[in-house]
Amino acid sequence: MTNDENDKNDKDEKIGFLQRRWVLPAALGAAVLVGGVVGAGVFLLAGSPSHEDRSAAHRAAKPRPAAPAKVDCHVRKCIALTFDDGPVTGTAKLLDILKAHGAHATFFVLGQQVANNQDILKREATEGHQIGNHTFDHAKLTGAPKAKVEDELIRTQEAILQATGTTPTVMRPTYGYSDKQLNGIAKEMGLAQILWTVDTLDWKDRNTALVTKRVLAGAKPGHIVIMHDIRPTSVAAMPGILDALTKQGYAFVTVSELYGGTLVPGDRYPPFLGSPTAGPAPPM
């Protein structure tokens, strides 16, 4: 056997080893698994990848385009219910409630919650809900070093990919805070930033009746409601909220459906908190 043939066999063996160990989703145009990254046709063969390697792979990735909206929100009264900080065990009950009402929602998950709740996350995806990135451990992103911001988002993308086989195209900045650096990183990673227009304050007031009152008082077509599936009081509010808004003719859609599947990576929706029609965000 010639040296060229030996070299070819060695290369084929290494590639085959990587392909057996790694997920290769068309959605990314890259492969991500704890312990390594394959991106843009470059195979990283030595040890664990550096932060720079992982970041470069995600910048080179090609996220899957949003699926066509199932509901035309130009015609229907649409509202987007969103839930932060899960998944947790109680999220399963929330999924039962949403399924019973034929409602879809968007879940902005923490990467650290995924490992112990993979079945719940898979169920969210299977039942037509949208999954978004909410950082790995709820770190504040504004003012943080670039490497820290990228790590928070990349680790969560990787965790969600491992659990569901797909990566999010939306993220929710912690505390609703964003800046130029985060705008740029989100754009590079193919993530639109999703804020909200109705704040239930359910993290503060863990009161089912109060959460219900705030949602119903703030609900308007095109609005985005923020809640937390880690709060049992909010889960308990959902049957009443869904019943009341259904009677008013609302369709419960994901955030991508709300905007017709045309979210632009890096942009904020709505441009800033509290107004779905406020126009461009003020200069940062």
Automatic annotation (TrEMBL):
- Answer yes or no on keyword GTP-binding: no
Segments forming domain NodB homology: 77-253
Keywords, sorted A to Z: Hydrolase, Membrane, Metal-binding, Transmembrane, Transmembrane helix
What superkingdom heads the lineage?
Bacteria
What Gene3D superfamilies does this protein's entry cite?
Glycoside hydrolase/deacetylase
- Which residue ranges traverse the bilayer? 22-46
Q: Which PANTHER family match?
A: CHITIN DEACETYLASE 1-RELATED (PTHR10587:SF133), GLYCOSYL TRANSFERASE-RELATED (PTHR10587)
Q: What name has this protein been given in UniProt? A: NodB homology domain-containing protein
Q: Which organism is it from?
A: Actinoallomurus spadix
